[in-house]
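Need residues for this backbone.
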């Protein structure tokens, strides 16, 4: 049971250390795309630790699982894991608990997908009522929809027929390049498929509310995808134009008053107006490489006995 326990400890350490390290760092605000990648790698490492520990615990507890898992492995490799001696109630209990956790995670993800599709279908139906197709208009992907509304707003509605929706109030408020920046921001969400990140992080956070890394993962995904989309817009239309567009869209909601309705908007505007101190290409490459190596560590830990036996 040494390797499964080591994997569980490694997963717990990754889950505890990653949020604290990223919270203390200042580079995620400057490089949200890299931060999104590092977060995904860290969470993948935690899940991989649990999956590998479950597989090895099941192999230690049941001969049938061991035979299937180690079927192509030489006999010295199987003996190096000492699975027969590691079997028993603890191995079976660990495997069952982790398997139930995996099933629960899958169930939460399926529930999140179903709920999202239900909400999306409802919003699509509302759009069809509020903005019906004109005579002779063909339905196509990425159709721009303009809604009558007193609240300035714009959003991307993904789905089988994705829609870029903007209200008439937003069209009245935003002029020229500011409108282009808002549309580029929403297109940035669509091109990066940020909706999948939000669904996955929400499923983990709801399914395991007491595990802080999953709650932090969800919160950071909501924040970082907005920063990444802001950068997409600012690269095309300038940081000042994008900041002014944010102000115009949110000025009437009290976000800059004593009781902000959206705490992210002031920080996003301040970030766009502050002269950027971007990371160097070498530093960015190092962070990306480190993030990519994090999920490799559990695999190496799981393979150590086999590698020693072969060596």
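Answer:
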């Amino acid at each position: 049971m040494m390797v499964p326990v080591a994997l569980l400890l490694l997963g717990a350490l990754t889950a505890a250390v990653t949020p604290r390290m990223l919270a203390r760092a200042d580079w995620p605000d400057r490089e949200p795309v890299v931060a999104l990648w590092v977060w995904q790698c860290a969470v993948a490492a935690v899940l991989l630790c649990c999956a590998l520990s479950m597989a090895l615990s099941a192999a230690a507890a049941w001969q049938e699982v061991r035979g299937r898992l180690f079927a192509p492995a030489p006999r010295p490799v199987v003996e190096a894991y000492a699975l027969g001696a590691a079997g028993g109630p603890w191995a079976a209990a660990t495997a069952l608990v982790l398997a139930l956790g995996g099933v629960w995670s899958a169930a939460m993800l399926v529930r999140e997908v179903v709920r999202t599709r239900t909400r999306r279908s409802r919003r699509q139906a509302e759009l069809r009522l509020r903005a019906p197709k004109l005579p002779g208009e063909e339905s196509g992907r990425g159709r721009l929809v303009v809604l009558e509304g007193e609240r300035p707003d714009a959003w991307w509605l993904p789905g089988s027929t994705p829609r870029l929706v903007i209200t008439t109030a937003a069209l009245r408020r935003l002029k020229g390049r500011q409108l282009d920046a808002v549309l580029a921001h929403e297109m940035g969400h669509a091109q990066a498929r940020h909706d999948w990140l939000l669904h996955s992080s929400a499923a983990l956070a709801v399914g395991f509310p007491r595990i802080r890394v999953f709650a932090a993962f969800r919160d950071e995904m909501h924040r970082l995808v907005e920063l990444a989309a802001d950068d997409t817009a600012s690269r095309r239309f300038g940081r000042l134009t994008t900041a002014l567009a944010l102000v115009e869209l949110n000025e009437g909601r009290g976000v800059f008053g004593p009781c902000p309705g959206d705490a992210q908007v002031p920080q996003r505007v301040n970030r766009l107006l502050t002269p950027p101190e971007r990371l160097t290409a070498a530093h960015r490459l190092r962070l990306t490489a480190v993030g990519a190596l994090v999920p490799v560590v559990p695999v190496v830990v799981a393979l150590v006995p086999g590698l020693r036996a072969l060596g």
